[in-house]
Amino acid sequence: MNTRAKPVSRPVRKLWILVVAMLAVLAGGFWWHGRAGSFVEYAMLDPKDIPTMVAIAPDGSAWFTIDFSNAIGRVRDGRVERLAKPTPNLEPVGLAVAADGSAWFTDAPAAQISRMTPSGEITSVALETRVAKLGQIAVAKDGAVGFTESSAHSITRLKDGKLDRVPIPFVIGAPLGIAVAGDGTVWATLQGANQIMRISPDGGTELFDIPTRRSSPSDIAVDASGAVWFLQFRGNKLGRLMQGKFEEFPLGEQNVGPTGLAVAPDGSVWFGLLREGSLGRFRDGRITRYKLPRERARPYSVAVDNAGNIWYTDISGYVGRLAP
User: Fold this and answer.
1) Biggest distance spanned by C-alpha atoms of the chain
2) Nearest Cα residue to 168 out of 192, 138, 185
3) CB 9: neighbour CB atoms within 10 A?
4) Which residues contact 58 (CB under 8 A, 6 or more apart)?
5) Strand arrangement of the beta sheet that strand 245-250 belongs to
6) How far apart are CA 285 and CA 301, in angstroms?
7) N or C of the chain: less Cβ packing under 10 Å?
């Protein structure tokens, strides 16, 4: 007796694919699987929304900012949520989640830094400046919030409601990216100066010149070993600073628009390739590319959850997740 399963006819197979796709849509996401891994993507509730930065909460929820809107977004339990805020967003590139699950975000049009609780309640701290141009934001283990303040040419720390600024000379250049190491050391990128800045827990500062000239350093992250990773947007490279020494890894001959940076639990480094519509992974000295499901995809920011899933925003209107 032949026990081999009979092949499914094409009409039946198409029907099953349609059923699976409909179930995915009803669940709030779209699912793709291929050799590059498994993707799940969530479309914006408002087709005009542009998701920008993404950050992961301890419960696995993915918070994201939405440009040109009056809302902060969140993907929780497979559903997209849109949480209203009283002020409009403009270039909202600062977003970080604290240990209590609340989201901190820059609010440049209102010249303030704001915090949104998981239930949607908002509190804000005014920057005491008439105009604010703000970069990225990070939350330290002690709860202090650090952010880059281009308009004030400073790296600013907010703790217990008090603002503490570390000034940067105008001749050096404005800061953009920021990351806080486990020991409290703050690292930042100075785009115009083509430098990496270090601020020790006691307030001491140190500057490091990036080997590639005019590389335009942007996003920055620190891994468990203390190595500092950063992207060179114009230099088209991934960089690493460890024990005062630089190492650079080219991303190809054509500029791929590297943007967004995160370190996974296994030590691999992830980033977006805006002009390729792909995610990049650096591990064991090699760069691997993962093509996003849609041809017009434009990944802008990445983050990693505790399970190793790679989350990303796609400015064409999606938030996605790549399974480990």
Assistant:
1) 83
2) 192
3) 9
4) 97, 99, 101, 306
5) 217-222, 228-232, 237-242, 245-250
6) 22
7) N
The answer to which of 49-53, 99-103, 170-174 has the lowest mean pLDDT is 170-174
Query: Which of 100, 98, 113, 97 minimizes the C-alpha distance to 165?
Result: 113
Could you state, in order of their start, the residue ranges of all structural domains in the chain?
A: 10-322
Give CA–CA dist 48/51, Å, rounded.
10
At 4 the pLDDT is: 30
The stretch 133-145 carries a mean pLDDT of 97
Contact in structure between 316 and 294 (CB atoms under 8 Å) = yes
CB 88 within 8 A of CB 81: no
Q: The whole model's pTM is what?
A: 0.88
State yes or no: pLDDT of 6 exceeds 60: no
Residue 167, Cβ neighbours under 10 Å: how many? 12
Calpha distance 313→299 (Å, rounded): 6
Return d(Cα 219, Cα 15) in angstroms, integer.
44
In angstroms, the CA 300 to CA 292 distance is 12
Question: Is the separation of the CB atoms in 274 and 257 below 8 Å?
Answer: yes
Partners of 310 in the beta sheet? 304, 322
> Per residue in 169-193, pLDDT tens?
877 888 999 999 999 999 999 999 9
Of 3.40.50.2000, 2.40.128.590, 2.130.10.10, 3.10.490.10, the CATH number of 10-322 is 2.130.10.10
pLDDT above 80 (res 18): no
